[in-house]
Design brief:
Layout: H1 2-20, E1 27-31, E2 43-50, E3 54-61, E4 71-77, E5 87-92, E6 99-103, E7 118-123, E8 128-134, E9 143-152, E10 160-164, E11 174-175
Antiparallel strand pairs: 1-2, 2-3, 3-8, 4-5, 4-9, 5-6, 7-8, 9-10, 9-11
The protein binds calcium ion (2 copies).
Length: about 180
Amino acid sequence: MRTRIALTAGAALALAGLAAAPAHAEFYSIDDPADARASLTDIFGLQANHGGKNLLVKVRFNELMRSSAAGISVFVDTDPDAKGPEYVLSSGLGDGTDYVLTGANGWQGSDDRVSCDYSARPKWGKDVFRALISRDCLDDATSVRVSVKMVDQADGSHPVVDWVPKRHRWSLPIASGLGA
Ligand SMILES: [Ca+2]
Ligand SMILES: [Ca+2]
């Protein structure tokens, strides 16, 4: 009987902890203006959903075509005490391009490939790029922040760049939906 009472008290504490925890949402969404019109892949929006198993990131463009020569970097912050991102998922936006998740070197990728489950693909018909990253790729962080950069070498003279939410700026913290 004594044990049973202790367990019940423990469960109640855990529930109270869960109820108090979400100071921020597990879902983040922001629109971005038409501020990179020189590129078809001007970013129009960013969504991130941090579930119990994966981080899903969707980036919406003005127009995404198979012939796109642009690329995208999804920066992920798993440790807010260490300046800058911890991980970067880099991908092309055109047909036949590849993607890779690496450790971050400042606001760039590195040769340090992360071995874990993740996938990414442009969906040309929907003008969306979608990346799904397992939480164990991200140190099982209970909260992450994201930042996205598009670079288009469209006309060869100078790259067109679009950041969401802003250059080297993070989304709000997105807690993992562990309790859901
Ligand atoms: Ca934009
Ligand atoms: Ca960091």
